[in-house]
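In this supplementary section we document a worked example of the pipeline. Step one takes a protein sequence of length 75 as its only input; no multiple sequence alignment statistics are reported here. Step two produces a three-dimensional model, which step three serialises into structure tokens for compact storage. The input and output of this example are shown verbatim.
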Amino acid sequence: MYSPRIREPLIPRVYRAAKESGIPMTAWVNRAIEEALQEHERGSESQVADGDALAEDPTTKPSGKELNDGISQTD
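The serialised model returned by step three reads:
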């Protein structure tokens, strides 16, 4: 299974946030990802429900570079 790498500059920030929360880093990261996905899915649902023109506007979509920033292709 593919395991994406966390960018190095984020590691200390995640470590501190997890420590402040009193949970392991993996639990903190999983929680953060789950919350971000829920927000993303809510936004996607409202765009579809509202017929939002931005959903089809190519200027609002991230480029391939933005999607791949910080992702190592050799992992």
